[in-house]
Amino acid sequence: MKIQRDNKEIDIITILEDKNKATTFHHFKGNDYKIITIGKDSDNLKEVVIYQGLYDNNPVWIREYNDFFSEVDRNKYPNIKQKYRFEIKGE
User: Fold this and answer.
1) Which 8-state DSSP code applies to residue 12?
2) Per residue in 16-75, pLDDT tens?
3) pLDDT per residue as tens digits for the range 2-21
């Protein structure tokens, strides 16, 4: 799978593509996650990201695609250093 970020294309691997090599994302509030897959909301056909937490009992979450890959709201979180809501761990 490919995403666009800062005018460049970035390859990511989902759990469904390769569980052992799936890309780890770091949320700006601290936890790590892996994307299971990208899907569509049946009500409005918007793309969604289905992702799993790498903590506690590995909860599974769903978030709109554009929200998952959005920048951190600087008005709401002025002291966060991370640029994006979810960033690839190690970048």
Assistant:
1) -
2) 999 999 999 999 999 999 999 999 999 999 999 999 999 999 999 999 999 999 999 999
3) 888 888 899 999 999 999 99
CA distances in angstroms from 61 to 28, 48, 54, listed in the order given: 16, 10, 11
Q: Which of 18, 19, 23, 30 is nearest to 2 (CA)?
A: 23
Ordered domains of the chain (ranges, CATH): 2-88 (2.30.30.320)
Which two structure tokens, joined as six digits, stand for 67? 């929200």
Residues forming beta bridges with residue 15, ordered by sequence position:
none
pTM for this structure? Answer: 0.90
Reported as type and span, the H/E element at residue 67 is helix 65-68
Q: DSSP code of 26?
A: E
10-21 CB burial, b ≥16 within 10 A, e <16: eebbbbeeeeee
Q: Which amino acid is at 51?
A: Y
